[in-house]
Design goal:
This protein is mainly alpha-helical and about 325 residues long. The protein has 2 domains: about 180 residues, Orthogonal Bundle (Fic-like fold), CATH 1.10.3290.10; about 70 residues, Orthogonal Bundle (Arc Repressor Mutant, subunit A). Helices cover about 60% and strands about 5% of the residues. The protein contains 14 helices and 4 strands. Helix 9 packs antiparallel against helix 10. The two termini are about 35 Å apart. About 5% of the residues have low confidence.
């Protein structure tokens, strides 16, 4: 088993035993986060708080375009449809995937007239034109091959879901990441492929009893580059490993946030040194949980720079924490 897989399993265990999932309306707010970040990757600037007001109160976000807001509303409805659909335990088909895409593109899709024929993206219809990845980018599969490739994908996914060991958490996550990569590489639709395939990934995760993973807007660059590298090198483990690492970091961050609202121990330990809820107290919390982490790992979990981690540890060292062992193989210990 790869080291990153072991790390994921450990993080999942701490996450599930922390009590986070027992929070009131946790599923709803987690869903809002999935939607906000997925649309942000496609250019939406609507925030998570604005989406909450939009979804719950019908209050439009000031200064945001109608297209952006409709993109988020459509994706919310698509998620609700998708999570409800998987309860039926029906096999994936080209028609079911197109219905999913239609939900995603309902208000922002449009009709296209091309040499290959006319099709409507708001109805989830497969593209009848060729597309490429950005200006001068590599072309995706020729549109004539899309129907068969999508049908073959459904056959593969149905078989994989039927035979996978559901007790192997890491393997289950890798299957969901692989499903996302394979379908987005086929690029069945003219628009909305990223949102639809990330939704499919989360649906597969829910089917397998996993915590849905979020590709955050902050990780957009790394995520897109990993997709490009996997496609060009024909090696899907590249994107799998990147998405695995991002999921670990997101879960670690959520564990920290939850601990900060329920555990006053951290502030007691460092009451003379740090202020509650600032960067230093967040760092103290993750050091307490993982004294063996490197500066780079702390930076990844906290979504801050390595230099920032080093600066804060320098302030803590000798007063709140002390180093035991070498820089490479040692760990941090709290001073009593």
């Amino acid at each position: 088993m790869k080291e990153i897989d072991k790390k994921l399993i450990d993080t999942i265990h701490r996450y599930t035993t922390s009590g986070i999932e027992q929070q009131v309306d946790y599923d709803k707010f987690y869903l809002y986060s999935l939607i906000t970040h997925s649309t942000a990757i496609e250019g939406s600037t609507v925030t998570e708080v604005e989406n909450q007001l939009l979804f719950d109160e019908g209050i439009a976000a000031k200064g945001r375009s109608l297209t952006e807001q409709m993109m988020n509303v459509d994706l919310k409805n698509a998620y609700l449809f998708g999570f409800d659909w998987i309860k039926k335990s029906a096999p994936y088909t080209v028609d079911s995937l197109c219905e999913l895409s239609a939900k995603v593109m309902r208000r922002t899709g449009s009709e296209y007239s091309t040499l290959g024929g006319t099709f409507d993206s708001s109805k989830g219809e497969l593209r009848r034109c060729n597309v490429s990845a950005g200006i001068g980018g590599r072309s995706y599969l020729a549109f004539q091959k899309v129907p068969k490739a999508t049908a073959d994908f459904c056959d593969w996914l149905n078989q994989a879901l039927a035979t996978i060991d559901r007790n192997n958490i890491a393997t289950c996550y890798r299957l969901s990441f692989e499903a996302h990569f394979r379908l987005v590489t086929i690029h069945p639709w003219v628009d909305g492929n990223g949102r639809t395939t990330r939704l499919l990934m989360n649906m597969v995760q829910r089917q397998l009893g996993l915590i849905p993973s979020i590709v955050t807007k902050e990780a957009k660059g790394e995520y897109i580059q990993a997709l490009v590298d996997s496609r060009e090198q024909e090696e899907s483990t590249i994107i799998q490993d990147v998405m695995m690492a991002q999921h670990i970091a997101n879960l670690e961050s959520r564990i920290l946030q939850y601990q900060q609202t329920t555990d006053d121990t951290v502030n007691d330990i460092a009451s003379d040194t740090v202020k509650p809820n600032d960067t230093t107290s967040r760092l103290v919390a993750i050091i307490k949980e993982h004294p063996e982490y490197t500066y780079d790992e702390y930076a990844q979990v906290l979504n801050i720079g390595r230099a920032t981690v080093a600066r804060h540890i320098k302030k803590l060292n000798g007063t709140v924490i002390q180093r035991i062992g070498s820089d490479k193989n040692g760990y941090w210990e709290f001073i009593k």
